Amino acid sequence: MARRTAALVNALAEDRPHPGHVAEVLLAYGETGPVHLTSRDVAQMREAADRLREVFAAEGADEAAAVLNRLLGEHTGPLRLTSHGGDTPWHPHLDSDDDAPWGEWLLASSCLALTVLVWDRQLPPGRICASAACRNVFVTQGPGPQRRYCSRRCATRERVAAHRSARRSHTNSPRLHTT
Question: Which of 72, 144, 149, 161 is the most exposed place for a label (fewest CB within 10 A)?
Answer without folding.
Answer: 144
